[in-house]
Amino acid sequence: MTQPTKDSSAIHPTAVVDPNARLGKGVSIGPYCVIEADVQIGDGTEVMNHVTIHGPTVIGQRNRIYPYAFLGQDPQDKKFKRGEASSLEIGDDNVIREYATINRGTQGGGGVTRVGARNLIMAYCHIAHDCQVGDDTVFANCATLGGHVHIGNKAYLGGFTAVHQFCSVGEMTMTGGQTMIAQDVPPYVIAAGNRARLFGVNRIGLERNGLPPEEIEAVQRAYKLYFRGKMSSEEALAAIEARFSASEHVKHFVDFIRHSKRGICR
């Protein structure tokens, strides 16, 4: 049985909710949850039993947070000093499954861990400090991000995928199960293995995300020119730009490679 509050949220009598937490309309807090100070939860979010949320954390609207998830705990970073300013921001319409953990940021990494909207984060996943996760991603069970990782929109991380700190994974990329990523993975590709290697363009993923056939063809040709041609990296990128200047997605592919700091998976 829950107790309705004056702001139209419902809190189970066994839950512990700090008076300084801010709950929107229609928020549901289940049995034995702990919602600490400096936590803000948006309208319509459901927090199931045994969830702990530490602040400063802002959670958007209509999220579903499953049992034993732990959000907003201190970063697992030896440089982090207790009490330094850091926070977690989570967008709207996310599903966060059992035992998932998402840590706050650190001052050295910008201070904020961010998770966008409409993501599915399955059981036992971990998102470390200062990560930046886009929208519409899928993290299969036990996918793990080290600190400072960037994940692009609509990326799909297979089960037990591990991403080394400071790496980036491009949008609409798919990784196989048990993939170990130690270098940047460009957008629109399939990556698998320990250490990760590339296995072509994620054509089915691009089709499902509504890319027209001509865009998919341009991405595939750009991929082959860069990874299977005999030119240097910069020569290949210049040739791709010259041949596919009309393709927005090819331009993003080129920009990602040019701005990579850890090098690109091959």
CATH superfamily of the largest domain: Hexapeptide repeat proteins
CATH architectural group of the largest domain? 3 Solenoid
Mean pLDDT: 96
Q: What does the radius of gyration come to?
A: 20 Å
Helix content: 10-25%
In the predicted model, the low-confidence regions spanning at least 5 consecutive residues are none
What does the main sheet amount to? 12 strands, mixed
Q: If strands are numbered along the chain, what order do they take across the biggest sheet?
A: 1-2-5-8-11-14-17-20-23-26-28-29
Structure description:
The strands form 3 sheets. A 12-stranded mixed beta sheet has the order 1-2-5-8-11-14-17-20-23-26-28-29. A 9-stranded parallel beta sheet has the order 3-6-9-12-15-18-21-24-27, with no helix packed on it. The chain has helices at about 205-210, 215-230, 235-245, 250-260; strands at about 5, 10, 15, 20-25, 30, 35, 40, 45, 50-55, 55-60, 65, 70-75, 85-90, 95, 100-105, 110-115, 120, 125, 130-135, 140, 145, 150, 155, 160-165, 170, 175, 180, 190, 195-200. It is elongated. The longest helix has 16 residues, at about 215-230. Helix 3 packs antiparallel against helix 4 (about 250-260). The protein folds into 2 domains: about 5-150, UDP N-Acetylglucosamine Acyltransferase, domain 1, CATH 2.160.10; about 205-260, Udp N-acetylglucosamine O-acyltransferase, Domain 2, CATH 1.20.1180. It is an alpha/beta fold and about 270 residues long.
